[in-house]
Amino acid sequence: MSDQTLGYFLGLGKIRAKDAAEIEWSHAANSQAKITEALQGPAHMIEADILMRGSDPVEPIMAHPPQTDSDINFRDWLAEVVTSDKGIKLDFKSLEAVAPSMSLLEEVRARLAGPVWINADILHGPGGQATPLEPKAFLEAVGPGSPGDVLSLGWTTGWVADTDNNPGYSWEMMRAMEEVCQNLKQPITFPVRAALLAKSFPQLQWLLQQLDRSSLTVWTGLNDVFPLTDLLPYRRAIDPSRIYYDLSDSQRSEFSSLNL
Fold this sequence. Notes:
Low-confidence stretches: none
Structural class: alpha/beta
Number of helices: 9
Largest sheet: 9 strands, mixed
Distance between the termini: 33 Å
Shape: globular
Helix content: 25-40%
Number of strands: 9
């Protein structure tokens, strides 16, 4: 099945065309205050991080490492989300949180209006120091879900300031990801770090060509520095429905002006 995200928001009149650059994101909605703010804000998609609470009651909660606790668990977070027409992106930080979270998701599936994206870093990427979730175990824990759910499958990455030696995404990384995804039936998006894209265009274009249900989601680290012109080859060569831009408000505005 193809990604239905753009069709959903187009049907609501929230975007003007099947252009993934129009999708706006709310990040780290990992507390009661943050999810309330996100639900009241303009973003189409709400991103939040899920891990298992580090103390009793051990359950999926909304938190990003190194945090081990939160004022909202995943069950209560979903209860807030089902009241809206926004989409959600669930970013899993631990393998043990995946299966119980998917069970909770299925309990409210019939009441969820918007798109559901399931995200994890499953392979080592350029400069990545963190340990990725094991691909086979992650996908088995996700299970069949809904055929329209978007699997957001990424690489661990790193970026160092004040150097030109940050590596891009390699051909080996592309082939490894293609092997993981070749038999999947769901739509797939590959989250890719904006600061590493200048050296990665042929590789990522090739990956999209191998998997016709796939897209890219360009994201940026809080302290990453890069010229937005690095993104123009992607904008000009790739179908606009196949590349999302998860950028800050100021970057979105500047990038839009570059596209004029």
